[in-house]
Amino acid sequence: MKLVMTLLVRDEEDVLREHLEYHLNAGVDHVVAIDHRSQDGSTEILDSYARQGVLTHTREEGTFSQQGEWQTRMSRLAVAEHGADWVVPSDADEFWMARGSSLKEALRSVPSEVGVAGGLLRNFVPQRADDGWFVERLTVRLAGHAPINDPATPFRPVVKVAHRGSPRVVISSGGAHRVFGVGEFPTGWYPLDVLHFPFRSAEQSARKYRKTWTGWESNLRGDLARSRQVADEGRSSAMWDRVALDGADVRDGLAGGSLVTDVRLRDVFRSLRETGAEPATDGGAEFGPDAVGSAVFAEAEVVRLQRWLDDVQRRVAVLDGRP
Q1: Whole-number average pLDDT of the chain
Q2: Alpha-carbon gap, residue 126 to 237, rounded angstroms
Q3: Which residues have a Cβ under 8 Å from the Cβ of 14 and sit 6 or more positions away?
Q4: Which secondary-structure segment (H or E) carries 1?
Q5: What is the pLDDT of residues 116-175, one digit of tens each?
Q6: How far is it, in rounded angstroms, from Cα 86 to Cα 78?
Q7: What are residue 33's phi and psi, to 5 degrees?
Q8: Backbone φ and ψ of 280, nearest 5°
């Protein structure tokens, strides 16, 4: 099996090397990347992996409204030039894990009539003590039964998808959450977890939002619009102050069950540093097949579909000249 990851990068030097090292050691054979206006060290990191022959990248200067077009192009390139049997569209702050097996084993077991394998985003919470390596610091995330359904937050339940390689694949705009042209997608079935680290430090979170405002021309999603408003009011740290937890918050969340400890990524990197081998990622009952996770997955799909239908309706209204 040939497994190719596609990656859209913009100013992610604090997480990019970890992202590439993890996935290349987890079974990804090649990475196809787009460097979108990076001004930090991201371009140099991509260049270093390209020289090793494990990554291909180009640069784009357009806006995020072209994200679906870029993702579609990368997925088709993964098939045409790298022979991908499966493609994993990812962001740099996402770490894909099979639930109790390896990525290739999980995807190899997908029935032939199924073209899409779902991954449930597991959102790790930021903590105010933000010194040191995020892999060692950030080991607490939202529990499966405690999703935040506010559409104006990056912590809402989200479905990500990997797909079979196809020259006809089409990736939806807005983060590769829906894929067309590759076969069935069973609702409520997710063999993959996507460990998500959207906020790694106060400085990184402020930079994250600033770069996103300049990447979109219009139609910012809720959390981006909210952060832009508070920044325009001179409170650039307001979003971090709103979401970052202190030690007491974490202890209360763990005791109350809204938070859970998840050390899978930390343990992978510890094992890679010590032995060069990736450990098993089965984290116990909380990570196994469960009705709660399936329900959250299904709910995320419904919310995503409704948002997609709303966007289609808005676009049709614009084409018809209606307000």
Answers
A1: 84
A2: 13
A3: 134, 200, 201, 204
A4: none
A5: 999 999 999 999 999 999 999 999 999 987 767 666 677 887 889 999 999 999 998 766
A6: 9
A7: -125, 150
A8: -65, 150
